[in-house]
Structure formats: structure tokens, C-alpha cells
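ugh ok fine here u go
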Amino acid sequence: SFEQIGVLHKRFKQLSHNEETLRRDHFNEIPDLVCNPIRSQIIEAFFDRRNFRQNGEGTVEEIGFEEFLVVMSHFRPPSLHMTEEQRESLRKEKLRFLFNMHDTDNDGTITLEEYRHVVEELLSLSGALQKETAKSIADAAMLEVASISMGHMEPDDEFYEGITFEHFL
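structure:
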């Protein structure tokens, strides 16, 4: 709504210190992001051209309000007035956004290394698990996804490239 856009504009101006653009360092000043284990992926999502709905590639160094608004729109809930088709389109958009957060090299696949990095960050930062345990959990989860998408696989099978967006869906 117009009111929500106004609130987001006010937040943009606060974050940017009244500048016309936001940079990564502005996001580092957000207290709630400091302790988030996937902080770097969240911040990078704002500078990833794939998230601007323009079929872009690569990253940018700063964003204006329009790009900020487009990225923030990925977090909006579905409207009560949406058709099933619109809801499904919104769902795919959100999943694409999440997929892009973890496909850090923009090759269309979440590799074991990319997936392992996220799982290790999520699990090892809690302090409850050691890094090696987190790695084992990531490997087992990736193997399960590989088995679902490619048929039965064993841990020694090396040919699995990773999770494509279709697998992610």
C-alpha cells in the first residue's frame, strides 16, 4: 500500500543516513542483523541483480530506494484477493529469492559447498554443535536431496552437481 511504501521509504532514509543510496556497510549497522547467522546472505540479497525483477546478473555496490523496495517486496505476504495462479506465482518468486540467496556464485545450482556453508553457519554459530557435526548434517541433507532428484545415491557418488531451482521447488 501507499502507506507501507511510505514506512519503507522512511526506513531507507534512516539506514542510508539520508543519502540517495544504500551500501553494504549501512546494513552492518542494523542491530537485529548482527547476530543473524545468515547475515551475509541477507545483505548480499539486496545487492544481487537477480532480485531486482529485471533478469539481471551480478551484483551492484549500492542500491536506490526502488531496488530496496523491490527486494523488500519479496517478503510481503499473499493478498486475500489473489487468485490461485497469483499465489503460486508469488510463491515461486519467494522461492527464487531464497534460492538466489544460497546460489552465491550465480551458476543456477546450489552446490554442496554453498549448502554446507549455510548449514554450518546456522548450526555452528549456536555453539551447540561443532563444525564437523554441522558439516555431516549438511552432507546428509544434500545426499537426501540428491537421492530424491536423481534416484538412490551413496555418499561416495561424486557426480551430483547440486540443487537446481527445479529441485528447490
